[in-house]
Amino acid sequence: MSGPEGNAGGRDERDDGNEATETDADHELRVTKIRNGTVIDHVPGGLALTVLGVLGIDGSAGEVVSIGMNVPSDRLDRKDVLKIENRELTRDELDVLSLIAPAATINIVREYDVSGKHRVDRPEQVSGVISCPNPDCITAGNEPVSPTFDVLEEGVRCVYCETILGAEGASLTEHADIG
Ligand SMILES: [Zn+2]
């Protein structure tokens, strides 16, 4: 399965060079303010719902979330922007986010001000945030072993059984298991 772009009607590689419009769209989204929370910007277009899924946000707890999808961007071809009110991301969440959206920018907003702005950084290894899908893996048994993955160019590899989970599509995100 090819994941989120399955129904997109073909990718448009054309660059219409409309820089002004792109900058305006970028700007417009940035100035729509939330009081407290996190703005996740520069998520690859179409992955916003995947990011929410990984963060365990489905709206059932009353979270206030605004999403812009496939917004024209000059850094990415198109991007998604998520604004999650009254929520700051944990280290574990940032680690997983770095795997599925390496170009993402995180803005922490407090009392309408951006109090912290940073890029996610890709760790060399992640531990305890993704579960290994291999039922024979030592981490799947009763041993007190935290699932640990080496971060590859694309995806991650279990350090115990070498199972690889891809960065694209569902496999990596399906096994994200944060706190
Ligand atoms: Zn494994």
Please tell me about this protein's structure.
By secondary structure, the chain is of the alpha+beta class. The protein has two domains: 100 residues, Alpha-Beta Plaits (2-Layer Sandwich), CATH 3.30.70.140; 50 residues, SH3 type barrels (Roll). 19% of the residues lie in helices and 27% in strands. It has four helices and nine strands. It has a five-stranded antiparallel beta sheet with strand order 2-3-1-4-5, covered by helices on one side. The chain has a four-stranded antiparallel beta sheet with strand order 6-7-8-9, covered by helices on one side. A hairpin with a 4-residue loop joins β7 and β8. The radius of gyration is 17 Å and the shape is globular. Bound molecules: zinc ion (ZN). Zinc ion (ZN) binds next to loops.
Keywords:
179 residues, globular, 9 strands, binds zinc ion, alpha+beta
Strand-helix topology:
Layout: H1 19-31, E1 37-44, H2 48-54, E2 65-72, E3 78-85, H3 91-100, E4 105-110, E5 113-119, E6 125-127, E7 148-151, E8 156-158, E9 164-165, H4 171-174
Antiparallel strand pairs: 1-3, 1-4, 2-3, 4-5, 6-7, 7-8, 8-9
The structure holds zinc ion.
